[in-house]
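sry for the spam today, last one i promise. struct tokens for design, 263 residues
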């Protein structure tokens, strides 16, 4: 692992995971930029955090926020905003930040969700959230930037002795409840931040859950146990191929083509 300070833009910095990410970025000795939508509503951030203003739904407002960053961590979400929010925030936020980067190199850590490949479940049928999060994953892979994609289990459903992190691939747990896996918010933040400086984490997608046992100390070993996504593939290694590109809205296909062509 490389132990040099980097500048990290945290997208979703005021959320339940994002707040832990900001703290973890600072704890690791890096510079944390916290993306905020409204300059008049700056939350209680750590003193060392740097607030930057930008609207995830407007790419042109994000240019200053991404200027000079070494990495971006996405923990944002559109919970409760239905299908429109899933497209404009879960997917659109990733698209717009990548567009604002305009080809500049940055390490990406994207948080989506365990079960993201489950298209037939009641949750996805109502919200299309899984489909849009999965499309955001595809954009990151198409961007050509080094990345890690983390699909965490249910936040903070773990008990006090359940901190041994387990990284899975193939996204096979589709119960739609905490039996799919649980993990502490702080540990999700740790994985996202540690992935940024780990060569072993590059180009890998995995589900993150916790089992009974102590928290890990060697994150590189965890990352090294995983298979990397196939070069040029839109989906993660071992994912079920149940989302043909032709199923996408035409505008999404065109956006994917633009990112791929730019790469």
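last one done:
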């Amino acid at each position: 692992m490389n132990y040099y300070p980097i500048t990290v833009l945290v997208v979703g910095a005021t959320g339940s995971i994002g707040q832990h990410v900001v703290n973890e970025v600072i704890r690791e000795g890096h510079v944390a930029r916290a993306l905020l939508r409204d300059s008049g509503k700056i939350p209680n951030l750590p003193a060392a955090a740097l607030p930057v203003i930008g609207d995830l739904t407007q790419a042109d407002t994000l240019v200053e926020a991404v200027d000079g960053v070494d990495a971006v961590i996405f923990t944002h979400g559109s919970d409760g905003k239905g299908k429109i929010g899933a497209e404009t925030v879960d997917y659109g936020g990733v698209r717009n930040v990548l567009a604002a980067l305009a080809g500049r190199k940055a390490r990406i850590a994207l948080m989506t969700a365990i079960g993201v490949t489950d298209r037939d479940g009641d949750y996805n049928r109502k919200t299309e959230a899984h489909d849009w999060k999965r499309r955001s994953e595809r954009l990151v892979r198409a961007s050509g930037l080094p990345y890690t994609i983390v699909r965490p289990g249910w936040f903070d459903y773990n008990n006090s002795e359940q901190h041994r992190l387990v990284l899975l691939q193939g996204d096979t747990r589709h119960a739609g409840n905490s039996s799919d896996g649980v993990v502490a918010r702080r540990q999700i933040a740790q994985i996202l931040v540690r992935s940024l400086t780990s060569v072993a984490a590059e180009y890998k997608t995995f589900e993150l859950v916790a089992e009974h046992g102590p928290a890990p100390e060697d994150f590189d070993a965890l990352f090294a146990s995983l298979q990397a996504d196939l070069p040029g593939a839109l989906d993660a290694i071992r994912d079920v191929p149940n989302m043909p590109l032709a199923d996408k809205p035409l505008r999404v296909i065109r956006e994917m083509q633009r990112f791929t062509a730019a790469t």
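The helical segments are 18-27, 63-66, 82-101, 122-127, 129-142, 185-195, 219-224, 250-262. ok im logging off now
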